[in-house]
Amino acid sequence: MLRAPGPIIGVTGIKGTAKRIKTWRNKYGQRKAGLFLGQIVRMQEEIGTGGGGFRFLYAAFLEQAAGYLQDDRLLGIADQMTKSGDLWRTSAVQMAGIYKGRLTEQKDYDDCANILREISEVENAAFQQLAKLKLK
Questions:
Q1: Under 8 Å between Cβ of 10 and 112
Q2: Average pLDDT for the chain
Q3: Given a cut of 80, is residue 45 above it in pLDDT?
Q4: Residue 48 has pLDDT above 80, yes or no
Q5: Does the structure show a pLDDT above 90 at 43?
Q6: What's the pLDDT score for residue 30?
Q7: So what's the pLDDT on residue 6?
Q8: Hey, which end of the chain has fewer CB within 10 Å, N or C?
């Protein structure tokens, strides 16, 4: 997630997508921008390329690893991954609202982008901490 090749993968890709979403309403119009956001939701929640579910699974893995390794530092990282999962679900609800035409203002797109930017920051911090760990 930290050193993924190319700018469209990992935490950099999440941050870049957030930046692009802010422009979509004016650039493509509400209908097409909504379709793009609907596609993101479909990829993250239905197809399984990301989203909240995998963050929750990873958090559970880190909690179990903390027990096996007797290293409570992993519990803090697990909490961050749980927060990321919650944010992914929040972003999916926001994107679905835009896709369904319930949310139509530029502010709604900005809110969506801000959630993704926060996800990028949370995951970046979590993976930075994980990379620095020296496990026993």
A1: no
A2: 92
A3: no
A4: no
A5: no
A6: 94
A7: 78
A8: C
The residue type found at 58 is: Y
CB 41 within 8 A of CB 92: yes
Q: Between the CA of residue 95 and those of 21, 82, 92, 98, 113, what are the distances in Å?
A: 10, 20, 5, 5, 10
CB-based contacts of 89, cutoff 8 Å, min separation 6: 51, 52
Say if residues 60 and 52 touch (Cβ distance below 8 Å): no
pTM of the full predicted structure? 0.90
Q: pLDDT tens digits, residue range 61-70?
A: 999 999 999 9
> Is residue 127 within 8 Å of residue 1, measured between CB atoms?
yes
Contacts of 69 (CB under 8 A, 6+ apart): 135, 136
The residue written with tokens 């290293």 in the block is: 71
Q: What confidence score (pLDDT) does residue 4 get?
A: 79
Among 78, 55, 56, 54, which residue's Cα sits nearest to residue 65?
Answer: 78
* Spans of all domains in the chain: 20-132
Three-state DSSP class for 1?
coil
Nearest to 49 by CA among 93, 82, 22, 9: 9
Torsion of CA 27, 47, 15, 128, to 10 degrees: 180
